[in-house]
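Q: Convert this sequence to structure tokens.
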Amino acid sequence: MFKQISVEFVYQLFALLFSAIIVHGVYVSVIRPHAEADLAEQRALVAQQPDVEVSSTFYVIIKDYEQEACFVLMLWALAILGYKGVTVLRERHLLEEDLLPLTEGIKILPEDARRYAKPLDALPPRLRNLLLPRAVFQALTRFETTQEVQDVASATTALCQNEGERLDSELAQIRYIAWAIPSIGFIGTVRGIGNALGQAHRAVQGDITGVTQNLGTAFNSTLIALLLSIVLMFLVHQLQLAQERLVLDTETYVNDRLIRHLRTK
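A:
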């Protein structure tokens, strides 16, 4: 378990670094140059036609540092979601396999439990540590020890509940990112409004360019942050739903494929 946590921690660390490098590279090479060109074109157009309506382009909307930070966090969260999603797919793939080749009518007595558990113990570590092999192995070893079918069922239920709680707790980091993204957007809003107020004296003199640009920063940062947060929370809920179904299906698998074959005599 410690090794698994360490591998996931290293993956998340490199995913954050990769996300920051990729997003910053795109901003430096593509987004900010296009945004500056669009702003220069808008200023020239306004100078020629003061009454013209100018709409912000996509590059202008996402050009600021707060939006860049939001995209970094979004890409990082997607990498974590992808890692956990692949793990769920691996777990579900095992549910389609017959770990215990038991035909209808076969009875497993307590003295037979060890024989059925040996193939599970011989699985590679990457498979043995998944939920289904652990649940089946624990059920067999518990049945050999206690010789009580009800105790096996209770232990399986407890294991699946603990696994569900563990999976839910591991989503805390992604939920934090989903909270942090709109918070960063609000920081951009505060910064934009503060800068706009600092340009108020120029607006009184008739030059409202600085005020409008800073207000644009304020509202654009919140807009992008809220949109990204909505998308991220949808994906988080989809992953949580897949994990809950995995736990329930695993418990059903053990009950249907193993526990109903257990006999004390």
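The chain has one domain: 66-98+106-261.
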